């Protein structure tokens, strides 16, 4: 039990730092672009470690999930306002992202299976 | 001391998780929601929604302040409270990690020790039960053997008793012969040749016949009975034929 609690505290720490960066990006718009680039970089690193690299992947999973939690948590109140007042735009954006994500995933899967056959 | 550390660790973990989740609620900054009616690409009337925060340096693209109407606003932010909660979460998680670094291996060792103790106790209990059952079985065996010995002592000397009965029978039959009148005695059948009586007296007839019957039940044939039970020889053969004639 204590090991699980310790692991959860690691997640909480990284998620808190990510949430703090999200608050900073909203309060001081000048930090928005750098923080966004940092997030994208970390996510890309996590994906590369998960899908390409050998070895322990626990750290990548930890960092990726902490980033995602922090990002969602920092913008949760904004998300609440958007859902209440501008749901159509949100749904349209989410659908677009999902469709493009599915297409990209399908293309990657096809590429991998073609490589395996060859 | 370790119990206190465990309590502090659990408390700090709970505070950090709840503080983090608490910092997500409530608005961070002042916000105004504007609705702007306009015509889209194919001249379809639509209403666009714009969110303007207090920290935005300029208006979003397509926003027209003369046409847009304020629809709603958030006028009371909780910026300080959210930042305080986030700081509490960070602080508590750091302290919990420092405490957990030493606590986790110790607690895992304790769990392993208690697991081994429980397994040992279980094994000891099972062995005790097995020993008690085997002792009970042994004592039953001994009880049975002692009872059997008593029974054997009481009823085991059947052969000597049977010999006594045979002797008595022979004695009574001789007495009866002496008392009977002579002509009745003459009418009795003449006895066949009984040379074997020197080896096999009359008192042995019933016991010998019983031994022969037992051998027959065990599957022995005539020659085996004569050689093994009656000791072999011509007298044994004659005696066997005599016994057959008498008892069959």
Task: Describe the structure in your own words.
The complex is a heterodimer of chains A (118) and B (248). Chain A has 118 residues and is mostly helical. In chain A, 88% of the residues lie in helices and 0% in strands. Chain A has 5 helices and no strands. In chain A, helix 1 crosses helix 3 (58-74), helix 2 packs antiparallel against helix 3 (58-74) and helix 4 (76-85) packs across helix 5 (87-117). The radius of gyration of chain A is 17 Å and the shape is globular. Chain B is mostly helical and 248 residues long. In chain B, 66% of the residues lie in helices and 10% in strands. Chain B contains 7 helices and 3 strands; from the N terminus they run H-E-E-E-H-H-H-H-H-H. Chain B has a 3-stranded antiparallel sheet, with no helix packed on it. The longest helix of chain B has 77 residues, at 79-155. The mean pLDDT of chain B is 85. Classes of the chains: A mainly alpha (118), B mainly alpha (248). At the A-B interface, helix 1 and helix 4 of A face helix 1, strand 2, strand 3 and helix 2 of B.
Shape of chain B: rod-shaped
Major protein interface? A-B, 30 and 43 residues
Strand content bin of chain A: under 5%
| CA-atom Rg of chain A in angstroms | 17 Å
Please provide the ordered H/E string of secondary-structure elements of chain A: HHHHH
What's the total count of β strands of chain B? 3
- Secondary-structure-derived class of chain B: mainly alpha
Distance between the termini of chain B: 98 Å
Radius of gyration of chain B: 58 Å
What is the total tally of β strands of chain A? 0
Between the first and last Cα atoms of chain A, what is the distance in angstroms?
Answer: 48 Å
Strand order of the largest sheet of chain B: 2-1-3
Oligomeric organization of the protein chains: heterodimer
Rounded mean pLDDT score of chain B: 85
* Approximate helicity band of chain A: over 70%
Gross morphology of chain A is globular
Summarize the main sheet of chain A.
none
Uncertain stretches of 5 or more adjacent residues of chain A: none
The helicity of chain B comes to 55-70%
What is the overall number of helices of chain B?
Answer: 7
Report the structural category of chain A.
mainly alpha
């Amino acid at each position: 039990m204590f090991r699980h609690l310790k692991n959860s505290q690691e997640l909480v720490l990284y998620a808190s730092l990510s949430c703090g960066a999200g608050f900073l990006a909203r309060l001081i718009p000048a930090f928005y672009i750098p923080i966004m680039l940092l997030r994208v970089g970390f996510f890309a690193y996590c994906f590369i470690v998960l899908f390409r690299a050998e070895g322990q992947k626990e750290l990548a999973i930890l960092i990726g999930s902490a980033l995602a939690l922090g990002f969602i948590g920092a913008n949760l109140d904004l998300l609440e306002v958007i859902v209440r007042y501008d749901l159509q735009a949100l749904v349209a954006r989410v659908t677009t992202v999902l469709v493009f994500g599915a297409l990209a995933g399908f293309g990657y899967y096809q590429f991998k299976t073609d490589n395996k056959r060859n | 001391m370790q119990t206190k550390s465990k309590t502090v660790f659990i408390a700090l973990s709970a505070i950090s998780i709840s503080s983090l989740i608490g910092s997500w609620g409530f608005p961070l900054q002042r916000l105004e929601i504007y609705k702007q009616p306009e015509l889209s690409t194919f001249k379809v009337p639509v209403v666009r929604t714009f969110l303007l925060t207090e920290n935005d340096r300029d208006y979003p693209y397509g926003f027209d302040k003369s046409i847009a109407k304020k629809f709603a606003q958030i006028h009371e932010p909780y910026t300080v409270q959210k930042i305080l909660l986030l700081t509490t979460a960070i602080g508590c998680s750091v302290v919990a990690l420092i405490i957990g670094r030493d606590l986790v291996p110790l607690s895992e060792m304790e769990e392993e020790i208690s697991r081994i103790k429980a397994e040992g106790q279980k094994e000891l209990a099972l062995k005790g039960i097995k020993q008690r059952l085997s002792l009970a079985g042994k004592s039953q065996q001994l009880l049975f053997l002692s009872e059997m010995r008593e029974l054997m002592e009481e009823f085991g000397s059947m052969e000597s008793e049977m010999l006594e009965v045979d002797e008595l029978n022979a004695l009574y039959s001789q007495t009866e012969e002496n008392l009977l009148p002579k002509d009745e005695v003459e009418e009795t059948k003449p006895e066949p040749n009984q040379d074997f009586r020197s080896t096999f007296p009359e008192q042995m007839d019933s016991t010998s016949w019983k031994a022969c019957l037992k051998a027959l039940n065990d599957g022995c044939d005539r020659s085996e009975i004569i050689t093994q039970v009656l000791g072999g020889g011509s007298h044994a053969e004659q005696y066997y034929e005599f016994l057959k004639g008498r008892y069959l």
